[in-house]
């Protein structure tokens, strides 16, 4: 494809993203599948242009006079992000071949008026989100806003029941990747986002030695379980298990660590043994969990999807379909040692991975989520035993889904006392640096993580202990 044809393709992919609800990643893949003439370089270039626009969408719309169509946004990106001259942009819009049609008079005027600068007043986030960020972060709001739209690295969690962090790192290095240790999770490895690593194709992934999980997401599980000693009789409920990312992290807590002497080092020629043998070995290992772990959700398909992940990781959980009102787990009422509520939320803390979602979110949706979160947290609280722990988590950056839910829960549940986060950082999976940093960042029983402050996705954690 010519550079001009790639621009036209990016504009049409952006229009498809705007018209539907599918993730940008899915729309880009579908475009590649439907246009077989596009080679891997073309697909990469189109994807890069699409994400460049999505991350700067608010400012580009403002710079292009309010136009939201893919063509205008791509023209804006060339002018204001790539800083091409009018002549260069016109050359890419000759209308020949599969390239975009020539610039209109208005488009030329926009480029000239912008003089290569995006409007200072425009932001990449919807106005109601900006207001929320200002209220929460004060002067730091724009730093937090920028963090939400920046590119994210690929974080991995090493399954220490199967390997050690250094052995996993060496294994990944042997495949040509460049993993670094994560600063806060002691079992995390970080890969650069560029070039995008195909983690799912790795033996280490298929044999359950590593999982893809943002460092912030890992921390929510480590903080939730920190200081608790699990026995096979302990009952841990992952109330909103979803894709099972945190279920897996909760399950490995307290499992005996892999014996470093039995963890093979990669041979100079690469990692060995590989492929099917390793996968079969991983599957035949007995599943284990140091506690009775119950993973619930209201969607059966989500629970079904956790099964292969548990099997890869070599851990066990009881998967339970529950009703919207919590029916299906009554037998654990007042009996659980730990109830983890990773509530449905806007996902705004992960917008750096899915920037298209920022513009799909409407203010009234936040009100619906707030009510749902409060209801789910109240239902889940009934399962906690006296002296047991309740953990509320969102991957949202918005106060209405975070502090406001915690405030309302506390007002209605005097039987739960906030548990200081600083007292819940004693876990081998948390680095010493994190212990100091997170204790300082926490406000009593509440902790916020964010791209700008911790270099992770945005998360909110509130810890409670049920009074005896
Ligand atoms: C944020 S996601 C969970 C993500 C998951 N913990 C992970 O780490 O991959 C929230 C989940 O809550 C589930 N959910 C929605 N309403 C619920 C309810 N009333 N009770 C329990 N779970 C619910 C959704 O189906 C969704 O899978």
TrEMBL record:
The residues that hold S-adenosyl-L-methionine are 297, 342
Location of the active site: 395 (nucleophile)
Against InterPro entries, the record matches this protein to: MeTrfase_RsmB-F_NOP2_cat (IPR049560), MeTrfase_RsmB-F_NOP2_dom (IPR001678), RCMT (IPR023267), RsmB-like_ferredoxin (IPR054728), SAM-dependent_MTases_sf (IPR029063)
A Pfam family of the record is RsmF-B_ferredox
Segments forming domain SAM-dependent MTase RsmB/NOP-type: 144-467
Q: Which UniProt keywords apply?
A: Methyltransferase, RNA-binding, S-adenosyl-L-methionine, Transferase
Report the PROSITE patterns cross-referenced here. SAM_MT_RSMB_NOP
Family as reported in the entry's similarity comment: Belongs to the class I-like SAM-binding methyltransferase superfamily. RsmB/NOP family.
Protein's name in the database: rRNA cytosine-C5-methylase
Species of the source: Brevundimonas denitrificans
């Amino acid at each position: 494809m010519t550079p001009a044809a790639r621009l036209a393709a990016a504009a049409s992919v952006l229009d498809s993203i705007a018209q539907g609800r599918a993730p940008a990643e899915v729309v880009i893949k579908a475009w590649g599948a439907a246009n077989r003439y596009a080679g891997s370089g073309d697909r990469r270039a189109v994807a890069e242009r699409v994400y460049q626009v999505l991350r700067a969408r608010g400012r580009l719309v403002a710079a292009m006079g309010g136009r939201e169509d893919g063509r205008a946004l791509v023209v804006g990106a060339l002018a204001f992000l790539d800083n091409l001259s009018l002549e260069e942009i016109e050359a890419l819009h000759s209308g020949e071949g599969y390239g975009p049609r020539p610039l209109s008079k208005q488009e030329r005027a926009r480029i000239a008026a912008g003089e290569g600068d995006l409007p200072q007043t425009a932001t990449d986030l919807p106005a109601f989100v900006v207001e929320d960020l200002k209220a929460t972060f004060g002067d730091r709001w724009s730093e937090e806003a920028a963090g939400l739209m920046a590119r994210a690295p690929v974080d991995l969690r090493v399954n220490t029941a199967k390997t050690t962090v250094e052995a996993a790192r060496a294994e990944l290095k042997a495949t040509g990747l460049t993993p670094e240790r994560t600063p806060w999770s002691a079992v995390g490895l970080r890969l650069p986002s560029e070039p995008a690593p195909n983690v799912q194709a790795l033996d280490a992934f298929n044999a359950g030695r590593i999982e893809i999980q943002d460092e912030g997401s890992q921390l929510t599980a480590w903080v939730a379980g920190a200081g608790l000693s699990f026995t096979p009789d302990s009952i841990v409920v992952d109330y909103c298990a979803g894709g099972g990312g945190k279920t897996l992290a909760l399950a490995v807590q307290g499992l005996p660590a892999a014996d470093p002497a039995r963890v093979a080092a990669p041979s100079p020629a690469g990692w060995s043994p590989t492929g099917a043998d390793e996968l079969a070995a991983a599957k035949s290992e007995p599943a284990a969990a140091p506690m009775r772990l119950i993973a619930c959700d209201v969607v059966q398909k989500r629970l079904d999807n956790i099964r292969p992940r548990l099997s890869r990781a070599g851990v066990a959980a009881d998967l339970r379909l529950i009703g919207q009102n919590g029916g299906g787990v009554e037998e654990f009422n007042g009996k659980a040692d730990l109830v983890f509520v990773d509530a449905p939320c806007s996902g705004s803390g992960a917008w750096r991975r899915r920037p298209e979602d920022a513009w799909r979110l409407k203010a009234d949706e936040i009100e619906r989520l707030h009510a749902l979160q409060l209801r789910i947290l109240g239902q889940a609280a009934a399962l906690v035993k006296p002296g047991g722990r309740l953990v509320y988590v969102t991957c949202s950056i918005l106060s209405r889904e975070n502090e406001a839910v915690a405030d309302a829960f506390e007002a209605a549940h005097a039987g739960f006392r906030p548990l200081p986060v600083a007292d819940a950082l004693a876990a081998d999976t948390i680095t010493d640096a994190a212990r100091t940093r997170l204790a300082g960042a926490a406000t009593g029983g509440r902790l916020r993580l964010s791209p700008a402050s911790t270099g992770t996705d945005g998360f909110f954690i509130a810890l409670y202990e049920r009074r005896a």
